[in-house]
From TrEMBL:
Residues 1-21 form the signal peptide. GO terms for molecular function: metalloendopeptidase activity; zinc ion binding. Keywords: Hydrolase, Metal-binding, Metalloprotease, Protease, Signal, Zinc. The keyword Oxidoreductase does not apply. Zn(2+) binds at H147, H151, H157. The active site is at E148. Its EC number is 3.4.24.-. Pfam families: Astacin (PF01400). This is Metalloendopeptidase. The keyword Hydrolase applies. Its cofactor is Zn(2+).
């Protein structure tokens, strides 16, 4: 392991008690609604392009040799324990993928973790300082951090993928009345990388997301009673498609 990667490991081993990393669905679908300029619930509109699928190299983070180096920095508003929660979540990408998070030392493009209103991110590399909002209350959870990082690496929500109509049905009559709320379920022409639809993905909405009446807004066509959208961490398929997008060696 080279020194450039050691900083995260060092900070992750500082003496903090174990944290509860249970995923809370509502943090992605309620807290984030306070932030303006969002589509699909927690995706910030890019300054340089609309929310297109990450199929072009321009929105991917570049490779340096076998690794994809993604510089990161943290707002001083986070305390040490809060920073370590984020760091431990970032470390989950290191062993199974070629993504490597490194400290920002003046690199042009980097992720800046900030505790703004809600949990949200841009999709793919947008250039320059790229904020990832992880509100201190409700967003500092392993699954939530992974979710927003996957957005930053180029991924949309699972239920917006281009072939979703084969697997799920959107019940628009149960969605909040606002036009923006219904747009949260817009389909995107995604690059699915030859991977199957994944109800266990950390990128999948829950079946009651943005419900106005307590009834489901998304149901699985194979089983209307199937529960989904409460993943506490990335699924095996999430890692597979990340490795495919960035052409990580097996």
């Amino acid at each position: 392991m080279t020194p450039v990667f050691l900083f995260l490991l060092f900070l992750s081993l500082t003496a903090f008690p174990p944290v509860n990393l249970l995923f809370e669905e509502r943090c992605l679908f309620l807290c984030c609604s306070a932030a303006g300029g969002l589509v699909h619930g927690d995706v910030m509109m890019s300054r340089n392009r609309n929310a297109d699928p990450c199929t072009a190299k321009g929105c991917k983070w570049p490779k340096t040799g076998p690794y994809v180096l993604v510089p990161v920095r943290f707002s001083d508003s986070y305390n040490k324990e809060q920073k370590n929660i984020i760091i431990r979540s970032l470390l989950t990408f290191h062993r199974p993928t070629c993504i490597r998070f490194v400290w920002w030392h003046g690199q042009q493009d980097y992720l800046h973790f900030v505790p703004k209103s809600g949990c949200w991110s841009y999709v793919g590399r947008s250039g320059g300082e790229q904020e990832v909002s992880l509100q201190k209350s409700g967003c500092l959870l392993k699954g939530t951090v992974q979710h927003e990082i996957l957005h930053a690496l180029g991924f949309h929500h699972e239920q917006t993928r281009s072939d979703r109509d084969q697997y799920i049905k959107i019940l628009y009559e149960n969605i909040w009345e606002g036009q923006q709320d219904k747009r949260n379920f817009d389909k995107v022409m995604t690059n699915n990388l030859g991977t199957p639809y994944d109800f266990d993905s950390v990128m999948h909405y829950g079946k009651y997301a943005f419900s106005k009446n307590g009834q489901p807004t998304i149901v699985a066509k194979s089983d209307p009673y199937l529960s989904f959208g409460s993943a506490a961490q990335m699924s095996a398929n999430d890692f597979v498609r990340l490795n495919k997008l960035y052409e990580c060696s097996e």
